[in-house]
Amino acid sequence: MAEPAFSREPRKLKFHVFCAIPETIKSVFETGVIRKAVDTGVLRVFLHDLHALSPEPHGKIDDYPYGGGPGMILRVDVVAHALEKVFCKDATDIGKLMPVILLSPQGERFTQEMAISFVSFSEIVFICGRYEGVDERVREYIATKEVSIGDFILSGGEIAAAAVIDAVVRLIPGVVGNVESLKEESFTSGLLEYPQYTRPASFRGWKVPDVLLSGNHAEIAEWRRKKAIEVTRMKRPDLISRKDYREEI
After folding, report:
1. Which of 33, 162, 237, 239 minimizes the number of CB atoms within 10 Å of its CB?
2. CA-based torsion, 220, 221, 222, 226: positive or negative
């Protein structure tokens, strides 16, 4: 993976989250780095309640699956109507202007590399699945990309959307104080992060490695590189297999 270029130039990003239960994640956007990004004006997050935007009586957004089976399915007309009401455009045209991302266990695995790519957009739409699934026509005609945060099932896509947004927001210039720290984090280089230590240098006989106290920056950099490879080999050997680190192991 080429080293990502973390721009220092300010940019603004809008997220639109279409979901069944906005309250599930509302507090996420009111704290931490996301709140900082909102307060500084580089980020705007819009939570769109599918029930409130539904064309159906009483805000109904789901129905039984054709062909039978358990659970309820999020309706395609509800999703389309919600997007069209917010953007005043045909739902199939919105994806020509910005990514329309469906959060789903069937999607492409979300990675740090994908998070970096999302920062290049000025506006992103997230559609959060819920219930037994989403009408397949949402995938076929409305969404431009399908994303999963892991091989497990959540009650809905709201939490997945919050996780993706948090990962992307941290990459907006000015949100995390030290831009250089982003380059050292796990997955950015294709490796897990090396072990970190701080004061005290010795606690109950548990000592910080001498090299980190030496002041020799070249040796420290070499130690960190080797440790990052070692940690990745032990905890995530699948990452090692994707890269040519074998001669360094």
Report:
1. 237
2. positive
Per the CB < 8 A criterion, the answer to whether 71 and 96 are in contact is: no
Element at 162 (helix H, strand E) = helix 158-169
pTM exceeding 0.70: yes
In 10-99 the beta strands, taken as DSSP E runs, fall at 13-19, 43-49, 62-63, 73-74
3-state secondary structure of 146: strand
Q: Report pLDDT digits (tens) over 223-248.
A: 999 999 999 999 999 888 665 555 55
Which domains does the chain possess?
13-169 (3.40.1280.10), 190-248 (1.10.1270.20)
Question: How does DSSP assign 163-184, residue by residue?
Answer: HHHHHHHTTSBTTBS-HHHHHT
Neighbouring CB atoms inside 10 A of 39's CB total 9
